[in-house]
Amino acid sequence: IDDGDGPTLDALLEPVHAADIADLIEQLTPPRRREFLNLYSGEIDGEILSEIDESIRDEVIEQLPHEVLTEAVREMDSDDVVDLIEDMEAPEQQAILAALDESDRAAVERSLTWPEYSAGRLMQSEVVTAPGHWSVGETIDFLRGEEWLPDQFYHVVLVDPRRHPTGYVTLGKLLASRRDVLLRDITEDSFRTISARQDEGDVAYAFNKYHLISAPVVDDDDRLVGVITIDDAMSVLDEEHEEDFLRMARVSDESHVSDGPFQTARQRLPWLVINLCTASLSALVISRFESTLAQLVILAALMPIVASTGGIAGTQSLAVAVRALATRELTSANARRVILRELFAGLLNGVGLALILTLAGAIILGSLQIGLVLGMAMIANQVVAAMGGVLVPLGLSKLGLDPALASGTFVTTMTDMMGFFAFLGLASWVLV
Amino acid sequence: IDDGDGPTLDALLEPVHAADIADLIEQLTPPRRREFLNLYSGEIDGEILSEIDESIRDEVIEQLPHEVLTEAVREMDSDDVVDLIEDMEAPEQQAILAALDESDRAAVERSLTWPEYSAGRLMQSEVVTAPGHWSVGETIDFLRGEEWLPDQFYHVVLVDPRRHPTGYVTLGKLLASRRDVLLRDITEDSFRTISARQDEGDVAYAFNKYHLISAPVVDDDDRLVGVITIDDAMSVLDEEHEEDFLRMARVSDESHVSDGPFQTARQRLPWLVINLCTASLSALVISRFESTLAQLVILAALMPIVASTGGIAGTQSLAVAVRALATRELTSANARRVILRELFAGLLNGVGLALILTLAGAIILGSLQIGLVLGMAMIANQVVAAMGGVLVPLGLSKLGLDPALASGTFVTTMTDMMGFFAFLGLASWVLV
Prior knowledge:
The structure is a homodimer of 432-residue chains.
Chain A: H1 6-13, H2 18-27, H3 30-40, H4 46-51, H5 54-63, H6 66-75, H7 78-85, H8 90-99, H9 102-112, H10 119-122, E1 129-130, H11 136-145, E2 155-159, E3 165-170, H12 171-176, E4 194-195, H13 200-210, E5 214-218, E6 224-229, H14 230-248, H15 261-287, H16 290-295, H17 298-326, H18 335-365, H19 368-398, H20 403-430
Parallel strand pairs in A: 1-2, 4-5
Antiparallel strand pairs in A: 2-3, 5-6
Helix pairs in contact in A: 7-9, 13-14, 14-20, 15-20, 17-19, 17-20, 18-19, 19-20
């Protein structure tokens, strides 16, 4: 299709949703993408631009003619403009800001004064407000008279004369009430404002927990500065989950399928090198038992069993703890109970696995003693795994660090070292 | 607080949001929970009940007096009732259904005929509809006259006389338009219906991708049967992410912080036993090289370095592939490119790590040869890890299986076996 025929391409993509066009652009190889943009750039609008993944957005923007870009930006809601330009360098940022109307520009600039990943960056400045003493009829007449309204809005926010939000009315209530009813009499019970300084992850969590659809954002003086809608909160929730998922697997959350091999390799190398170091610690542990191993070489074949099963158990316990911390289900109130639960569960599984290993040792290897050593080491390592899996993320989160980021490395280092040490230590004591 | 004083408790919890009360109930230990429910059960309403996590909801329901339960259920929207009773046994289900009004009961029963985890189970049957030829004024008068309206609704769905949805109008547009404007002239461009048979994960994905707020659900004859709102889609997205996260760490997605130690141990044991088996395969590989190990015991200490670094690389590659499959960013269209990217990135990192190992071998161990063997084995294992990490999930998803579920075990088994085999094989060839 994109071998030269611009008009056909335009016609074909006419009925396609902006999000799908953005997906198409992401999936092309860089040279094909350039060809595509040459043919299609005139049609790229604000909607498509805000759907394109950050990893390739810079590349796309560079290839767009300046008029197309400014035209696209002028159509966008203020939150999408902020999202687009917050990672740009100052001169580019200025070029785009210059293309906006004065009021839009002021809104975007105000948003940019809030910290990165805060509610202030996520909100849109376009809010529909009304004083509480208005009647439903007055409000509807006001909305009909207003030339400019946001694309999507779900509530009318009631504000006092100093722009402090005092409540909100759903559009459904507004439509279903008689014209003479006062707005202040049909506000929702559950009214929550969000501070512009709040972390966007906490905002997404609150939306999901309290089933919010939109929430007013206030500045440090409790004055209304914008509104966050659930679709933005949903995107943040999605991103936060993705970040946790990738971080647990020790991948940078900036990695993307469209990255090239060099970028991919560079993103992953640091954790591999760190693992090289922690694995060397295990090697050091093992090397202390060289004389034991020399006497009974079969131990070398068996020792990874204890270490790797401990690693799995540690990861299990860790994953549950990291999720529970993220969803605020693990708090200081129940931490002690969860730790005891893990300890006991680790002990139970350790004993279960030890029974299997002892039997297997006796039957397959013909040595009850080796089976017993394997089993005892397994119990010790399962307990260490269970404890490490819950204590390490709790500790990191107490220190204000992200428990998903480094826990995995800590925990598997612990289970590897403990696995080799317990097994070889017991073996050199009992068997040799 | 819950040492006996019911009225004080009621007063204290009066201003608290239902979701927070549910959290409180979840965090109590089972005996404390019983005490709490004895004091507070009269106040448990539909909202609190639908917020309580499934893992303890049965326990809570059993302790509620029948009248409280039926009263609570009668207040709930049909989708929440479905969510509550779908996992119950037939007699309990009947008891709750009997408490509902006839029309509600019929709606719930219709929902239950759709497959589990489908859009049909997620939707609520309460939809606000209007014929397209109505004017804005007629619609507002209709809404004002209607006694019963859903708690939350964001669109009026236009239907033809056979209840086929033909478009929808946002409440914002409805409020901002003059009374004589026809509904069919202010419908949204992007109109999507969802089949009741569609998987709820796909529904959540569509909501997030296309920024939907609510979407009409249709049956096999394209007739409107309900509506799904974004807050439900957001919960599903959250759950699906949680499931993937826990599955990658080999934890049942039904595990919960409030589980007891026995339950926890039982949920985790199966994967530990599977790992025992796969680790035994590695032990088998190692045992083939017993004579090599006997001659050069230091190899036993070094071999886990290659295996574990391969495991990390495999997990990295796997996590990226699993996420990309879940977000439909990895498709048959770009699979070949992603596989080549992984291959090349694995090769690059393998060479990088090999250089470090060769140097370390020469300097720390004083043996360039051992360093070279470590390095060569590392390159081989990094390539296997990169390939396994992308091919295994692609293969599983081609077979219609969940790539998050078993990939980890496959991939780490591959990298362990390859790590030991390449290192010991090369060592017995070069060194001994």
